[in-house]
Amino acid sequence: MNLEGKIAIITGAGLERGFGRATALELAKMGANVVISDLCQDDEKFPELKIGSWEGLNKLADEIRALGRESLKQLKQM
User: Fold this and answer.
1) CATH number of the domain at 7-77, please?
2) pTM for the whole thing?
3) Which of 24, 32, 36, 65 is the most exposed place for a label (fewest CB within 10 A)?
4) Would you say 20 and 13 are in contact if contact means Cβ atoms under 8 Å apart?
């Protein structure tokens, strides 16, 4: 599928080994520019929760850009 010129919006993309991250990368490989977002946390504040991190979103945005696509991050801190 060719998604050249399309924009995808992915929520829950901040986990380094999560479904949102994998989906965002796959859509970028298909040609889409990707908006990524997550509820981010400081590990010390909520260690029991499995939600995204600032670092995870930043790494994902860099990977999307390395594929020649644009990426916009939307961060919401808990």
Assistant:
1) 3.40.50
2) 0.83
3) 65
4) yes
Q: Is the pLDDT of residue 66 over 60?
A: yes
Non-local CB neighbours of 47 within 8 Å, separated by 6+ positions: none
Per-domain boundaries in the chain: 7-77
Q: For residues 45 and 36, is the Cβ–Cβ distance under 8 A?
A: no
24-59 pLDDT, tens per residue?
999 999 999 999 998 876 656 666 667 778 888 999
The H or E element that residue 10 is part of is strand 7-11
What distances in angstroms separate CA 20 from CA 44, 55, 61, one per listed residue? 23, 15, 12
What was the pLDDT predicted at 40? 73
- Cβ(69)–Cβ(33) under 8 Å? yes
Of residues 38, 48, 35, 44, the one with CA closest to residue 9 = 35
